[in-house]
Amino acid sequence: MLKKLFGTIIVNKQKDTLSMKKNLLVELCNEFCKKKNSRIAKEQQRYMKSKMPYYGIQAPQLKKIYPPLFNKYAPISNKEYRNTILHIFNNAKHREEWYAGLAFANKYKEFIIEENIDIYIEIIRLTQWWDTIDNIAPKLIGTALKDSKNLGKFLIEWIKDKNLWVRRTALIAQLKYKKRTDFTLLSNLIKQTCHEKEFFIRKAIGWSLREYSYSSPKDVSDFINQNKDNLSHLSITEGLKAIKRINAF
After folding, report:
1. Contacts of 187 (CB under 8 A, 6+ apart)
2. Which burial class, exposed, middle or buried, applies to 51 when counting CB atoms under 10 A from its CB (0-12, 13-18, 19+)?
3. Total number of domains in the chain
4. Domain range for residue 29?
5. Has residue 33 got a pLDDT over 60?
6. Of the four, 26, 74, 84, 123, which is 20 to 30 A from 193 by CA?
């Protein structure tokens, strides 16, 4: 009897977890439908060059929709966190649903851990555009790996990936690290990709250099001077932006 009862509890808990994933996305979609604006949606889709349609909801409105629903469906375990995020991204029909998935992933700091790197990379491979990757790379992956001894191992692996968005992730994962940036590692990553003509790689190189220049302008300036023949004009311009602004005063 106890075994049967225990089994029933486990089954019910699994059903509750499944319902949580589905119900959160359903309720998000219901709220988004109430706020949709077809004119703005067309503009957003055109601007983002997105095949996936928009509801036409802007960021301030989205931020008001999230809190009550996220609180209602707050994950109580890492498994729930992972499954909810994957369900949202794999079943989204509009881009705002992806944005909701990102907001959910970022809200629960206790689950932004190295164990979840695999799902963050899975989402990068699924979404493949700057509006999602530029959130996931520094905020989720960067946070999860900040104190990890495996940081270099992951970034060195990703910089060789065939997917340009995974390579971009390797370049910008340390954006929030400031003085804690492993600049030797970043320099090596840049040297492996500076030959690429892809805009999003060149931009990422410049962005990563610019962010580190706030903490160590001399290191960045020296690196650019030593590698100026290999770096693109875009990477150099972006990398020196903050330094030139400071020197102008």
Report:
1. 223
2. exposed
3. 1
4. 17-111
5. yes
6. 123
Q: Is 49 helix (H, G, I), strand (E, B) or coil?
A: coil
**Domain assignment of residue 33, yes or no:** yes
- 132 in a domain, yes or no? no
Residue 20: pLDDT band (50, 70, 90) is low
CB-based burial label for 125 (10 Å; 0-12, 13-18, 19+)? exposed
CATH number of the domain within which 99 lies: 1.25.10.90
Compute the distance between CA of residue 78 and CA of residue 51 in angstroms, rounded to an integer: 32
d(CA 28, CA 243) in angstroms, rounded, equals 43
The residue type of 125 is: R
Q: Using CA of residue 211, residue 168, residue 107, residue 150, what is the dihedral sign?
A: negative
Asked if residue 57 belongs to a domain, the reply is yes
Find out whether 229 and 200 touch, Cβ atoms under 8 Å: no
Whole-angstrom Cα Rg for the chain = 21
- Residue 128 token pair: 């493949």
Query: Helix, strand, coil: what percent of the chain each, to 5?
Result: 75, 0, 25
Binning pLDDT at 50, 70 and 90, where does residue 19 land? low
| 178 Ramachandran zone, left/alpha/beta (phi>0; psi -120 to 50) | left
The pLDDT of residue 249 = 52
Q: Which two tokens stand for residue 29?
A: 């979609």
Distance CA 171, CA 207 (A): 9
